[in-house]
Specification:
By secondary structure, the protein is mainly α. The chain has ten helices and five strands. α5 crosses α8.
């Protein structure tokens, strides 16, 4: 069966019952931060005769904040039907399948793409467990300046100030211990309780805002590159203090 016989906007016919023809391995054609939106897209694909399945939908439904870490809900179709699926996806995002009527107030608003360049809030907070909470708080602070939400900006200001003070205090308290190159990471690990509290009470609103507003549809700044720089700095601090201490 080919697509050349289909008129523009015409849905391809569904596969014949009992048709066991091999259509290829399932491949990802879309990632959506909202599980309900992914299910709606899956329904449109199936209605167009394209077998479609979802990945990580139940996980994202359990906790929307995991959507960024997982890369959103994966929508997958057989490899041989990717071209047809992309046409359906384009129509879906253009609003061709929208039904007129009142919006269900119980449904969350759909995510929308943005050109904002952001650090992944969840990944930044996670890496702060090893790179001190200042790392996560600093990236959240930079995000808050781009998001332009006053409440999130105030929370980021408080979070960064508290994280700097807490980290400085932790290093000060550990100054008399046997210092070696890994000591900065040990101090950071000892601050796990503070990092968790910062995440729960200060940082989580930004992650929730990004997940609900954009899902994964924003420009991702390279968190791992920033983490590599901070990792090198922490190694240098540990090595420098170790060499400066008298034997």
């Amino acid at each position: 069966m080919t697509d050349s016989s289909l008129a523009p906007g015409e849905s391809p016919p569904a596969p014949a019952p009992g048709d066991d023809a091999w259509l290829g391995d399932f491949t990802v054609v879309a990632r959506l931060g909202n599980a309900q939106e992914a299910q709606a897209l899956q329904g449109c694909l199936v209605a167009a005769g394209i077998p479609a399945t979802l990945g990580d939908a139940h996980t994202v439904q359990t906790n929307m904040l995991w959507a960024n870490t997982l890369g959103g809900v994966r929508v997958m179709v057989p490899l041989s039907l990717v071209t047809r699926a992309n046409e359906v996806i384009a129509a879906f995002h253009s609003g061709a399948y929208e039904i007129e009527g009142d919006v269900d107030p119980d449904l969350p608003p759909p995510t929308r793409p943005t050109d904002l360049a952001l650090w992944s809030p969840d990944l930044a907070a996670f890496l702060g467990l090893w790179l001190t909470p200042v790392f996560g708080a600093a990236l959240h602070w930079l995000n808050s300046r781009r998001l332009g939400v006053p409440a999130l900006a105030r929370q980021a200001d408080v979070g960064l100030a508290l994280s700097v003070a807490a980290t400085a205090a932790a290093f000060w308290l550990g100054r008399e211990r046997d210092w070696h190159v890994a000591s900065p990471f040990i101090v950071s690990g000892a601050m796990t309780a503070y990092t968790a509290a910062w995440w729960m009470f200060i940082a989580q609103p930004q992650s929730r805002h990004v997940a609900r507003s954009f899902g994964r549809q924003y420009r991702h700044r390279p968190v791992w590159r920033a983490a590599a720089v901070v990792f090198a700095v922490m190694l240098a601090i540990g090595l420098g203090i170790e060499n400066l201490r008298p034997d």
